[in-house]
Design brief:
With 162 residues, the chain is of the alpha/beta class. It contains 3 helices and 6 strands. The protein has a 5-stranded mixed beta barrel with strand order 2-3-4-6-5. β2 and β3 form a beta hairpin. The longest helix is centred in the first third of the chain and has 16 residues.
């Protein structure tokens, strides 16, 4: 029960904080923009999604530490990822947010020590989301959107692998 509560709190914090913005990057130490932490694991031409399209960022081929860093970078510098096809795997998690009257679905990934979690919202065109805590892989196009005056990021038009 405690583990689920921690996972819920981590996912809620991620979803509510959304993507980073220029304002966040300028607040980095020294007032400089945050540098890109991690390069893509493989060239886009060498990785193909289940749907047959190229994958620009394949998080399934990275170590837990690298995945955690890359997802963090996506939230800090989302404009560098917009339009890229991203594949990731982790545990499914959903949360209903009363203020928007919507349910948000995310893939949650733990770091190497399993003490910290990052996640990314995804949007399935058919709306057939898996139950919470199921191990899944999702491939989608990274996008940002505005809601309640904030910028958020997600994998749009995603395809689910279970």
């Amino acid at each position: 029960m405690k583990r689920r509560t921690i996972a819920c709190a981590a996912a809620l914090a991620l979803i509510l904080t959304g993507c980073g913005s220029e304002k966040v990057a300028k607040n980095a130490p020294g007032g400089n923009a945050v540098p890109r932490l991690v390069q893509d694991a493989a060239p886009a031409s060498s990785v193909v999604s289940a749907a047959g399209g190229e994958i620009d960022v394949d998080l399934t081929q990275m170590s837990a530490t690298m995945v955690y860093a890359e997802v963090f970078q996506m939230t800090v510098d989302p404009q560098s990822y917009v339009g890229k096809t991203v594949r990731m795997q982790g545990q499914s998690f959903s949360m209903y947010y009363e203020q928007t009257a919507q349910t948000y679905h995310s893939v949650i990934i733990a770091d190497a020590t399993a003490c910290c979690q990052q996640g990314l919202e995804y949007l399935l065109p058919d709306g057939a989301y898996p139950p919470d805590e199921r191990e899944i892989a999702v491939t989608g196009v990274f996008e940002t959107y505005e809601e309640l005056g904030e910028t958020y990021c997600r994998l749009g038009n995603a395809a689910l692998e279970t």
